[in-house]
Specification:
Mean pLDDT: 97
Largest sheet: 7 strands, mixed
Structural class: mainly beta
Shape: globular
Order of helices and strands: EEEEEEEEEEE
Low-confidence stretches: none
Helix content: under 10%
Strand content: over 45%
Number of helices: 0
């Protein structure tokens, strides 16, 4: 059974940084494409970043240039670092492998 557990969310001030983590079990992140999505209140789900099984990365326009997605194969975890955070980054962030989803972690950007 595949389980994905997100962590690292919380309250951050505008301009601050946050590092989210997606801990996987049942699948090896080293062999999978892993996606981070976010859903803001009243809006649809949007792709934030992807890291391919070979390590290639792709970022959504909303975080491009201020975000880094990475894999830690030793802990089977994918991290998402977002810098220079903005109020519009406020959302629930979820990770996904194939058809499997975590429950998400809330990120709130506010002064």
């Amino acid at each position: 059974q595949v389980q994905l557990v997100e962590s690292g969310g919380g309250l951050v001030q505008p301009g601050g940084s946050l590092r989210l983590s997606c801990a996987a079990s049942g699948r090896a992140v080293s062999s999978e494409n892993v996606q981070w999505y976010r859903q803001a209140p009243g809006k649809g789900r949007k792709l934030v970043a992807v890291i391919g099984h070979l390590g290639t990365t792709l970022y959504g326009d909303s975080v491009k240039g201020r975000s880094t997605i990475s894999k830690d194969n030793a802990t089977n975890t994918v991290h998402l670092q977002i810098n220079n955070m903005k109020q519009e980054d406020t959302a629930i962030y979820c990770c996904s492998i194939s058809k499997y989803w975590g429950k998400g972690t809330q990120v709130t950007v506010s002064s």
